[in-house]
Amino acid sequence: MSQAENAAIVKRGSKAIRIRHGGSEIFATSVLVFLAAVVIFPLIMPFMFVFKTQLEFSYHPWAWPKAIMWDNFINSWNAVRIDQGLKNTFLVSIGAIIATLPPSALAGYIFARYKSKVTEFAFYAIMVGFFVPAQMVLIPLYKMEVGWKLNDTLYGLFLPMAAFGIPFWSLIYRSFFANLPNELSEAARIDGAGHGGTFFRIMLPLANPATILALILVFIGAWSDYLLSLILLASQKNFTMQLRVASYLTAYGADRMPKYASAAVISAAPTVILYIIGHRWIIKGTLAGAVKE
């Protein structure tokens, strides 16, 4: 076979490979574009309603608004009592962070640095809670809160959130601390630092990616919670943003859709802004915690 024939065969083979590779790229890109549209559409949809009058929404619900109606935000703020909802939700989110991060960090450090049969048993016992969904324990949780008079209180809401979150974040912190060099803690002990000093002055600052990741995601999870709030809160004064917006929709339905959409936009704005600001830390913390022990 001549060199020209060999070159022609190689050229046809490389062309076929490029065609197959190009086809796979087109398919993968199409799938990613579709998934992106599925995620982005719910974020864009409220803006198709929020600036319309009620009459304009009734006749042209899926058209872009002809004019900007900022009054919808003012009316929904007053109708939904968004100021009280924002206050309650902020307190619940901060409480969830305070009740989740310190015990998770301490547990993760102990499980990573003081390995024994006792700590391994305790670790796997805590991990059992990670596999128990909240829906399975709503009835006993409600009965327990009623018995302890914690129901219909904000701290009675963020404490269960912390209980459901501690197993997962203990696992994340354990992964971070296990991958830190042992020489750091040994050097700290040589310098006279005790267990507490080694943890607070050396180890915990090195786990900042995990701490920031936990802070952002716990805040977003607590802010977006609806199920636990619906079960554990009863009085309007304690309603979080999600309950206030949902109760407004239940009361008026689609008859007040522009106001409902504006309230939903206000409710989602803090978490969207926080994610935009901290998405780099989320990626950094996730990748840093993915290293195998």
List the helices and strands and how they pair.
Layout: H1 3-44, H2 54-59, H3 71-80, H4 82-113, H5 117-128, H6 138-147, H7 155-178, H8 182-190, H9 195-206, H10 208-224, H11 227-232, H12 241-252, H13 257-288
Helix pairs in contact: 3-13, 4-7, 4-10, 4-12, 7-10, 8-9, 10-13, 12-13
How would you describe this structure in keywords?
293 residues, mainly alpha, MetI-like fold, 13 helices, 76% helix
Architecture overview:
- The chain is mainly alpha-helical.
- It folds into 2 domains: 46 residues; 218 residues, MetI-like (MetI-like fold, Orthogonal Bundle), CATH 1.10.3720.10.
- α3 packs across α13, α4 crosses α12 and α8 packs antiparallel against α9.
- The model has no long low-confidence stretch (mean pLDDT 80).
Principal-axis shape equals globular
Q: What's the CATH first level of the largest domain?
A: Mainly Alpha
- Outline the biggest β-sheet: none
Give start-end ranges of low-pLDDT stretches. none
Could you tell me the radius of gyration in angstroms?
Answer: 26 Å
**What is the share of helical residues?**
over 70%
The CATH superfamily title of the largest domain: MetI-like
How many individual domains?
2
Q: Report how far apart the termini are.
A: 56 Å
Average pLDDT metric: 80
If classified by CATH, what would the architecture of the largest domain be?
Orthogonal Bundle
Strand/helix succession: HHHHHHHHHHHHH
- Write the CATH fold name of the largest domain: MetI-like fold
Kindly state the number of beta strands.
Answer: 0
The proportion of strand residues reads under 5%
